[in-house]
Specification:
By secondary structure, the chain is α+β, with helices and mostly antiparallel strands. The protein is 51% helix and 18% strand. It has two helices and five strands; from the N terminus they run αβββββα. Strands 2-1-5-4-3 form a five-stranded antiparallel sheet, with helices on one face.
Length: 180
């Protein structure tokens, strides 16, 4: 480092400081952003469960009489791609076809992340009267966004470092050439 000209040292130190600060901010931002995304997904699952309960309660037909099994038509179209299982005491539970052999029965009310079919999924369990509703979705979109953020960070960091080095080199040269 002693053999480098002063303006090269200034540019290098500027680039290292900026790169370190950028890495620190991005590494701190990723978990915060993930937490906010998870909170938004939890609210969406809670809203989905409330919509499902509302549809079941207001449906005229077998849903009003819990001695008859629930039918697939009770599930809103917007929720059919989600994981869901609706438990009614004394009945076979109504389950999402994409759950295959996985059972969500017995989960305590609340929101949790669990592994389904080798992938992370966010599952919410809600009780309403006789009904226990388990509804969830894969976390693939959130995880992909986190990976994309990391990839973008790793790709842009060298460009930022080179630009800051060049700017530091130039600003030092201009500052020394025109003092005061």
């Amino acid at each position: 480092m002693r053999s480098l000209p002063l303006r090269a040292k200034f540019g290098l130190y500027s680039a290292l400081l900026t790169t370190g600060a950028t890495v620190g901010v991005l590494l701190a931002m990723r978990p915060i952003l993930y937490k906010h995304q998870l909170a938004a997904l939890d609210q969406e699952l809670t809203d989905n469960a409330a919509e499902l309960v509302r549809d079941i309660e207001h449906f005229k037909g077998p849903a009003m009489n819990f001695r008859k099994p629930l039918r697939e038509e009770l599930i809103p179209v917007s929720l059919r791609r989600r994981y869901y299982e609706i438990e009614v005491p004394g009945q076979e539970s109504l389950r999402s076809p994409n759950l295959r052999d996985v059972r969500l029965t017995g989960l305590e009310p609340g929101l949790r992340t669990m592994v389904l079919f080798g992938r992370n999924a966010r599952i919410g369990s809600f009780r309403h009267g006789y009904l226990t509703i388990h509804i969830g979705t894969r976390l693939g979109t959130l995880e992909t966004m986190q990976e994309d953020m990391l990839e973008v960070m790793l790709k842009t960091l060298p460009v930022v470092a080179i630009a800051v080095f060049a700017g530091g080199w130039w600003s030092f040269a201009v500052g020394v050439a025109f003092p005061g």
